[in-house]
Amino acid sequence: MTATVKLLIAGKFVESAASEWREVRNPATQEVLARVPMCPAAEIDQAVAAAKAAFPAWRATSIAERSRVFMRLQALIREHMEMLASTLTHEQGKTLADARGDVFRGLEVVEHACSVGSLQMGEFAENVAGGVDTYAIRQPLGVCAGITPFNFPAMIPLWMFPMACVTGNTFVLKPSEQDPMTPMILAELAQRAGLPPGVLNVVHGGAEAVNAICDHPDIKAISFVGSVGVGTHVYRRGSENGKRVQAMLGAKNHGVFLPDANKEQSLNALVGAAFGAAGQRCMAISVAVLVGQAREWTADIVAKAKTLKLNAGHEPGTDIGPLINGQALARVEQLIGQGVEEGAKLELDGRKPQVAGYPQGNFVGPTIFSGVKPAMHIYREEVFGPVLCLVEVDTLAEAIAFVNANPYGNGTALFTQSGAAARTFQHDIDVGQVGINVPIPVPVPFFSFTGSRASKLGDLGPYGKEVVRFYTQTKTVTARWFDDEAVAGAVNTTIAL
Ligand code: NAD
């Protein structure tokens, strides 16, 4: 009997009554690990009702008490790191080292959530008029929801529910149906950490579950991370229903390489960022812009890419694991074929690799195209596979113009030893997250993830200070206290302060 993935409702792990179920498969072997329900709207309703019922008491719980739950959660995540990473590798495919990184980057958000005492502080101005003070308090919204993608099944749920709950909200999480087992372990650890029943609830499913979240009148805010198409739908539908929505979307990230860069370091960074996690990162570098003499680095990039070892994620020494599923594999192979048809030069072809012991795995090896033009599909689309496009330009100014002409604005990186070039780049580049000799510049949680343009809808980012604003409503209070003796008998007829 294959295990079923449970729902978490009102503190209990319960079996779904869904009529439709999907299989969760190990992408390296196709072994069925579990069955996950496609929850109907009625089950979303149950989860929201539990979250709504838990809200008044949780909202009234002291900041210190809320914060302590997350102190315990961070300790439990550390304690269970290997189990989390191993489950993640089996259901998602990435290497164990990457899986640990996935958990760790989420753990950092849990650590940050513990400082909610200072993060959620309001503001106070004394004497805005004679004897009158104004202060602002940040209050939780109520029931919030999170919809997460398959590529970071630990980090992205941890971007959401710890910050939402620590600020006093209750939460309904809808993880990706492709790898729901890791988020369920996190949910279980959160219960063990002392999160009261109903504060965190978990449902599963696809379009029906997501639409029910977008439509539910008791959900006040939705955090979404995933593709442009689905995110745009969620943003629109959720907003139309009066909710706050933040949506972190797809990307096409460029690395810009100046000839004065430290070549060895820069090319190592490039192949890691282009092919690591099989290119299934929203911050993967999928385009390398080679400037001036750096055009001559193509052969070295290809040579480095060839050294990467393709294998199942749990095998020691693996650099690149499989893609998430058969459709993703077929799509990536099709896009590579289209790149060839459209005239790009295939410098390295990763299609149909032989991976000993894993003939059923969804593998594509590192693939590199040179001579890529903006009109080609391999450039226009987010491939979300280990495919790198090389583009050549003469100057830094041309490189900046090229990057800025792309609609996406998630991340970019410049490789150089010139401070002046770096200063020009960081100032002129129209991308939300910039690395200077750092290939994947995802900020630590004291900042926020700050993708921009077509990579994001909504103004506030996930985690960090921005998400405290997202998950809270600012209320301002303007107060005057009368000194009974001083004002006895006085009548104030003015309305304005
Ligand atoms: P996806 O959009 O297919 O799925 C995201 C969520 O939406 C999942 O929970 C899924 O169940 C749900 N969903 C899928 N189809 C739906 C539909 N038709 N209607 C309603 N809901 C639906 O994304 P994915 O393939 O899981 O993840 C990869 C994408 O996520 C890439 O585009 C990647 O760039 C993006 N991503 C972005 C960030 C970021 O921070 N910007 C981070 C990680 C991933």
From TrEMBL:
Its EC number is 1.2.1.27. One of its GO terms (biological process) is thymine catabolic process. The keyword NAD applies. The keyword NAD applies. It comes from the Bacteria. GO terms for molecular function: methylmalonate-semialdehyde dehydrogenase (acylating, NAD) activity. Keywords: NAD, Oxidoreductase. Residues 13-477 form the Aldehyde dehydrogenase domain. SUPFAM superfamilies: ALDH-like. InterPro entries: Ald_DH/histidinol_DH, Ald_DH_C, Ald_DH_CS_CYS, Ald_DH_N, Aldehyde_DH_dom, MeMal-semiAld_DH. Pfam families: Aldedh. Belongs to the aldehyde dehydrogenase family. This is methylmalonate-semialdehyde dehydrogenase (CoA acylating).
